[in-house]
Amino acid sequence: MEAIVVENLTKHFRKAYDKTLKGFFISLAKGEKRYKEFTALQDVSFKVKQGESYAIIGKNGAGKSTLFKVLSGIIYPDSGRVEMNGKVAPLIELSAGLSRDLTGAENIRLNCAIFGLSKKRIDEVFDKIVAFSELEEFIHTPVKFYSSGMKARLGFSIAIHIDADIILIDEVLAVGDKDFKKKCYAKMEELRQSGKTLVVVSHSLKPLRKICDRALILDKGKVLDIGEINEMIDKYQEDKKPKKKKKGA
Amino acid sequence: MMLAYLTKYKELMYFLVHKELRIRYRNSLFGFFWTLLEPLGLMVIYTLVFGYLVNLNKGLPEGAYPLYVLSGLIPWTFFNNSVRKGTKALSSNASLIKKVYFPREIFPLTMLISNLVNFIPAFGLIMVMAVVTQQSIQWDQLALLPGIILIQSGFTLGIALLVSVLNVYYRDVEFIVNLLMRAWMYLCPIIYPVKMLFSTDADPIVQQFADLYFLNPMAVIISLYHGIFFPGQGVPAHPTIPGFWVIYTVLVTVILFLGAWYLFRKMNRRVGEVI
């Protein structure tokens, strides 16, 4: 069964030239387009099977984050089809404004509630989340005093405990210490075994070889290639090397 | 459709309402009592300025001006706060909206509910005031209170949905709303008795436009509240259709709400990128 089906997905962004009223009237009078279109994703198609671990790799500005946001429902595509079969949980950074003043415990409740968990279910998973994050000592401290590693730990713990079928992970694995990373990888493996689908968006390639089955390479908003993870990473690194030299020169 | 949300996300709304109320009265000595102290303070100010200085109390029973002001001001505050806070409901939660998707209608709805929670004890204050100033209470009108609150909530939510999503696109909306709300307040019977507009010694220009006065749904709603305490100051009867203004207000509310809902849905599609 397919967990994610994306077909011919295209997304343009509008870059407004000038958002002031004066600029608006000037461009209106001149009869010119009031915004510049920028294609973030162009004709992207791929499928992720249920229980698969899928990586999306690409350089900065390749459209990874846009794709991630489309998958999590924050941004609507202009055209194309996105089908997510199951409950989606994006791993969220806890530095979000609303939650900064809240304690770790309150953040757990808030995030669980955002994903539609009932009060009863929240009570059930609460201790598990705290235990996994290893933040028992600081759970009643406002999140604004947390280090980035602590935030990542809490965020990851929440995302894996909210009964989602598809978990989207965006770069966050870069933080957290070695032991916690190890624990995350083990947990991700466990989730896969239990039939959950993982999508990892990243440009740190090393850990992907271990966790993912397949990968998609994005380049300037287009799909460059889709295939087995090691193959794709090798290909991506080959592509990348000469370009890097050019940039340096 | 809306009810399905309500049940699925009731835990989230409970959390947000709770947080909103807690933040509002954080670091304040009187805490929740500000809900009551603020309108009481305004009542005193308005009574001194408009009741004694400007003499706007014509046609009201002796000593009833404070109650008149209070019974209009408290419903108005409910509306005013919900709309003003609702305007910023989406834009102030940008960081959350950018990270995770869930029905964004929840934000303006949360503002409405937390203000409703404040409104109910404040309404009790009006009742206390009516007893203190020995005014009669029209029990048959009081029985309609849940209906009045429902109409007002629907109307308020319609406006809040609209301005909250518009404010994401153009932050100017916030400033426009603040100004318009002030003007709107004077278009409602809060500091002056509504009968004043229809009396024969009113300014000719006022008399000419008096018939249009109740096209403002908030004027009808506030008058419905007034009707509970002042039989002569409620919504006036229409010469041909009984209950015309109430029916009109309900219709406007339904149309506004559906329109706002549709527009919110439509504009919501780009909220994730422009916020």
UniProtKB/TrEMBL annotation, chain A:
<dbReference type="Pfam" id="PF00005">
    <property type="entry name" value="ABC_tran"/>
</dbReference>
<dbReference type="GO" id="GO:0005524">
    <property type="term" value="F:ATP binding"/>
</dbReference>
<dbReference type="InterPro" id="IPR015860">
    <property type="entry name" value="ABC_transpr_TagH-like"/>
</dbReference>
<keyword id="KW-0067">ATP-binding</keyword>
<dbReference type="InterPro" id="IPR027417">
    <property type="entry name" value="P-loop_NTPase"/>
</dbReference>
<dbReference type="GO" id="GO:0140359">
    <property type="term" value="F:ABC-type transporter activity"/>
</dbReference>
<feature type="domain" description="ABC transporter">
    <location>
        <begin position="26"/>
        <end position="245"/>
    </location>
</feature>
<dbReference type="InterPro" id="IPR003439">
    <property type="entry name" value="ABC_transporter-like_ATP-bd"/>
</dbReference>
<dbReference type="GO" id="GO:0016887">
    <property type="term" value="F:ATP hydrolysis activity"/>
</dbReference>
<keyword id="KW-0547">Nucleotide-binding</keyword>
<keyword id="KW-1278">Translocase</keyword>
<dbReference type="InterPro" id="IPR050683">
    <property type="entry name" value="Bact_Polysacc_Export_ATP-bd"/>
</dbReference>
<protein>
    <submittedName>
        <fullName>Lipopolysaccharide transport system ATP-binding protein</fullName>
    </submittedName>
</protein>
<dbReference type="InterPro" id="IPR017871">
    <property type="entry name" value="ABC_transporter-like_CS"/>
</dbReference>
<comment type="similarity">
    <text>Belongs to the ABC transporter superfamily.</text>
</comment>
<dbReference type="GO" id="GO:0016020">
    <property type="term" value="C:membrane"/>
</dbReference>
<dbReference type="InterPro" id="IPR003593">
    <property type="entry name" value="AAA+_ATPase"/>
</dbReference>
<keyword id="KW-0813">Transport</keyword>
TrEMBL record, chain B:
<keyword id="KW-0813">Transport</keyword>
<dbReference type="GO" id="GO:0140359">
    <property type="term" value="F:ABC-type transporter activity"/>
</dbReference>
<feature type="transmembrane region" description="Helical">
    <location>
        <begin position="29"/>
        <end position="54"/>
    </location>
</feature>
<keyword id="KW-1003">Cell membrane</keyword>
<keyword id="KW-0472">Membrane</keyword>
<keyword id="KW-1133">Transmembrane helix</keyword>
<comment type="similarity">
    <text>Belongs to the ABC-2 integral membrane protein family.</text>
</comment>
<feature type="domain" description="ABC transmembrane type-2">
    <location>
        <begin position="30"/>
        <end position="267"/>
    </location>
</feature>
<dbReference type="GO" id="GO:0015920">
    <property type="term" value="P:lipopolysaccharide transport"/>
</dbReference>
<dbReference type="Pfam" id="PF01061">
    <property type="entry name" value="ABC2_membrane"/>
</dbReference>
<dbReference type="GO" id="GO:0005886">
    <property type="term" value="C:plasma membrane"/>
</dbReference>
<dbReference type="InterPro" id="IPR047817">
    <property type="entry name" value="ABC2_TM_bact-type"/>
</dbReference>
<dbReference type="InterPro" id="IPR013525">
    <property type="entry name" value="ABC2_TM"/>
</dbReference>
<keyword id="KW-0812">Transmembrane</keyword>
<feature type="transmembrane region" description="Helical">
    <location>
        <begin position="213"/>
        <end position="232"/>
    </location>
</feature>
<protein>
    <recommendedName>
        <fullName>Transport permease protein</fullName>
    </recommendedName>
</protein>
<feature type="transmembrane region" description="Helical">
    <location>
        <begin position="244"/>
        <end position="264"/>
    </location>
</feature>
<keyword id="KW-0997">Cell inner membrane</keyword>
<feature type="transmembrane region" description="Helical">
    <location>
        <begin position="106"/>
        <end position="132"/>
    </location>
</feature>
<feature type="transmembrane region" description="Helical">
    <location>
        <begin position="144"/>
        <end position="169"/>
    </location>
</feature>
